[in-house]
């Protein structure tokens, strides 16, 4: 059930860990807003990443939640970057109905060197490479994958390029992340992430009203007359969103939408709850190790144990190499 938002919307406690779809029909716009609190805080604190890497991972998780929540079937949405920057790989995935996880691979020395030299930008961390977005509907189905370049830009830039090239839907994406300090003597950092996306709705019959040009979005393309006034207005309002508005735990997502689009009327639809998860298990890790030869397992052994750590949740598993092929108890930290 949808609901038109009013000036009293958001007087209730703000919602966290959700993706909220919305529409502004007079502007021909649909969109989604993401608010992540404890979910992204847990993901960040499971890793001992430098702050700039944590911020980048939090944005990747927010983007993944926003795009994954659009799946109309049971499946998985996977976002992965590969690049030449200090953060050479980001991986985040969304499993229906609302489960997310993520991790980053990076060169700690290069990141620390960048931090010491001054301000670290998202583009500097990512560098050049590509972003892959994959939809997996499970066994006996073919994966769909879209790939776009990372040309020293941001994750938002890459998302714009993806929608322009793969779906030809005019799209704007804004991502934000960062830590907020708690209150009291034992206050700790609480990481948060937020995102908001708008898209120009296809006209009746599924025809996209215009296709923006990468170099000049207002250019006249094939006689379309450039960007429609309603999309120009929607983009202007979207660009007015500030980072703190996407992260503020006291600002309900519905209230933010009303602030932006109340003049034209904004409708909110039922939200999707987001939870952190990980699919690793002792049994799964054990099965992988069992597939190696005795010689390979010997090379993996340190201090009498084979140790495996999950990249996503940092859970540590310990195995006695002598137990493989035997019915014996195994230890786990």
What does this structure look like?
With 333 residues, the protein is of the alpha+beta class. It folds into two domains: 14-276, 3-Layer(bab) Sandwich (Hsp33 domain), CATH 3.55.30; 282-323, Alpha-Beta Complex (CBS domain Like), CATH 3.90.1280. 29% of the residues lie in helices and 30% in strands. Strands 1, 2, 3, 9, 10, 11 and 12 form a seven-stranded antiparallel sheet that branches. The chain has a six-stranded mixed sheet with strand order 8-7-4-5-6-13. The radius of gyration is 22 Å and the shape is globular.
How do the helices and strands line up, and which of them pair or pack?
Layout: E1 3-4, E2 18-24, E3 29-36, H1 38-45, H2 51-68, E4 76-83, E5 87-95, E6 99-106, H3 108-117, H4 122-126, E7 128-136, E8 144-151, H5 155-167, E9 171-181, E10 189-200, H6 229-239, H7 243-247, H8 253-261, E11 267-268, E12 272-273, E13 275-276, H9 282-290, H10 294-300, E14 301-302, E15 305-309, E16 316-319
Helix pairs in contact: 1-2
How helix-rich are the residues, as a percent range? 25-40%
Strand content: 25-35%
Q: Tell me, what is the CATH class of the largest domain?
A: Alpha Beta
CATH topology term of the largest domain: Hsp33 domain
Note the overall shape. globular
Properties at a glance:
10 helices, globular, alpha+beta, 333 residues, 29% helix, disordered C terminus, 6-stranded mixed sheet, 7-stranded antiparallel sheet, CBS domain Like, Hsp33 domain
């Amino acid at each position: 059930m949808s609901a038109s938002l009013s000036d009293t919307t958001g007087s209730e406690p703000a919602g966290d860990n959700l993706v909220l779809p919305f529409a502004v029909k007079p502007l021909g716009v649909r969109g989604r807003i993401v608010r992540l609190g404890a979910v992204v805080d847990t993901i960040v604190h499971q890793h001992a990443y430098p702050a700039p890497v944590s911020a980048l991972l939090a944005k990747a998780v927010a983007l993944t939640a926003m795009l994954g929540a659009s799946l109309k079937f049971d499946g998985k949405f996977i976002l992965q970057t590969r690049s030449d920057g200090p953060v050479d790989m980001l991986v985040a995935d969304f499993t229906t109905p609302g489960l997310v996880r993520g991790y980053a691979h990076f060169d700690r020395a290069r990141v620390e060197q960048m931090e010491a030299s001054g301000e670290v930008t998202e583009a500097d961390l990512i560098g050049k490479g590509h972003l892959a977005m994959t939809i997996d509907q499970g066994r006996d189905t073919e994966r769909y994958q879209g790939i776009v370049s990372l040309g020293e830009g941001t994750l938002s830039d890459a998302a714009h390029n993806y929608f322009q090239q793969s779906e030809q839907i005019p799209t704007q994406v804004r991502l934000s992340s960062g830590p907020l300090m708690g209150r009291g003597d034992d206050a700790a950092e609480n990481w948060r992430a937020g995102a908001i996306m708008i898209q120009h709705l296809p006209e009746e019959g599924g025809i996209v009203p215009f296709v923006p040009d990468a170099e000049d979005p207002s250019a006249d393309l094939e006689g379309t007359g450039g960007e429609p006034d309603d999309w120009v207005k929607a983009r202007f309002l979207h660009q007015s969103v500030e980072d703190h508005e996407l992260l503020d735990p006291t600002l309900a997502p519905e209230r933010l939408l009303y602030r932006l689009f109340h003049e034209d009327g904004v409708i909110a639809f039922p939200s999707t709850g987001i939870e952190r998860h990980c699919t690793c298990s002792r049994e799964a890790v054990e099965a992988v190790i069992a597939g190696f030869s005795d010689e390979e397992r010997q090379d993996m052994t340190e201090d009498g144990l084979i140790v495996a750590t999950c990249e996503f949740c940092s859970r540590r598993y310990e195995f006695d190499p002598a137990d493989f092929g035997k019915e014996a108890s195994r230890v786990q930290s």
